[in-house]
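Researcher: Let's try something more involved. This one mixes different molecule types, so please make sure each is placed in the same coordinate frame as the others.
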Amino acid sequence: MNSPLQGLFPNIDDWGELGHACIDTLLMLGGSLLLTVAIGLPLGVLLYLTGKGQLREMPKLYAVLSLVVNVLRSIPFIILMIVLMPLTYVLVGTKLGIRGAIPPLVIGAAPFFARLVETALREVQHGVIEASQSMGATTWQIVRHVLLPEARGGLIAGITVTAIALVGYTAMGGAIGAGGLGDLAYRYGYLSYKSDYMLVTVVLLIVLVQLLQMLGDRLVARYTRR
Amino acid sequence: MIRFQDVHKSYRVDGRDVPALQRFNLDIADGEVFGIIGHSGAGKSTLIRLINLLERPSGGRILIGDTDMTALTEAQLRQQRQRIGMIFQHFNLLASQTVAENVAFPLRLAGESDAAAIRQRVDELLARVGLTVHADKYPSQLSGGQKQRVGIARALANRPSILLCDEATSALDPQTTASVLDLLAEINRELKLTIVLITHEMDVVRRVCDRVAVLDAGNIVESGAVADVFLHPRHATTRRFVNEALPEEAAGEQMPFTHVTGRILRLSFRGDATWTPALGRVARDTGVDFNILAGRIDRIKDLPYGQLTLAMNGDRVDEALANLRQAGIEVEEITPSPENRA
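Model: All components are placed in one shared frame. Result:
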């Protein structure tokens, strides 16, 4: 191939592989983000509701949930991936590739996102909840029609932060066989001293994070009314 | 009828019971506007929240009609709450929803799902509070008075028989306060619903309430018809509230009349007596001389009243006072005392 790119990045001989790696990263990100929100949102709501002075105050349940969340958040992601390998194998039938990466990504990110959800819900004014109670709303109606819509801006901001954290996690996952941009950067850039690989993957990751942040900020602005 | 029977309430703070409301009994009649006045911390927020059980009493019963609110299951309580509207000092509207959606919210909570029926009811309510043109705005685009009108429309959505007002005008400027109070009075008149309001302003009580209870440190220290309580306050706390509601020059008690000659009297007129020329007639008939020191004429809800502080001189003052009393005017003699000189 005789393109100007080859002059700039002499070691990159297969741009198709780079493209694949991009797609793998996006797939891992999309899949794990979806599941993280699906698990973290209800978990965050539960943390909020069972917290001190809240609608369904349950100190023991809250303490247990809180402990589990803190433990999972304390373990460095790279260790978490290795520790979880047997469970990953049971869940998805492989420890490698995109499929193998998703369980540890979700288990690592969901507790983090749940805390962000809890914080966002606490920002909802108590008066609005009291008003809903005075109208005879059930707890579920308050969650569905008051808490989630009123906290929408904060929740979107939380999803953005979580997505960006997941980009970092997927790159780490690359080191132990998950594939994607992290895998390329590690194998070619670090193990084979091809620093142009490193540069390109890092730039791509920066662009990805920038895009996520911009999109998130826009959505927050669109859905926050104060 | 809202009836409090031997109700008391205390909170547990650090393992100790801190009383918020001492044991009390209170009846609020159907269709009246009942005011509860007290300083902050007196227990009035707790008292009003006992009615819809946002606060559970530590003892006693709360009856609405024949229903013992304290004996209801969760589901029954939610049903009852739909019949009790409530508005708040800080409005507590959903910031993420439009005005129309806010007003529709209690209808949806009550299980109404017919969009046309909801729209029709919302239109009616917005027309009543004068916000039809703002239906599609968000609360952040409205003024305080407009937000409270949304709150009122929302509170009325399920056709409640009781409306609770939690310091509903305390965050509003005087003019807006007056227009919101007028709206509440109109609603009370036209919909015949019972209004219970709490406030720390005697002026709010004077403008709209039929009866009032004065709350001081968790005790109801005085209650009765607003005119009686306002014109003849007995408890020190009540007197302070009444004086706050009067312009300084009319709060005669605070003035030292030591340099004034004659007997110092306070005359209270109510209703029709306010408009009769009794004072002039009595003065002419008995030949007494009088000198007005302070006074005002105003209304307590729809009842006109006047209060005059005057000094009276002459030989037949006692006869003049008897004549005034006969004309339906209440007469009190104020003797300047050392404490008034302060």
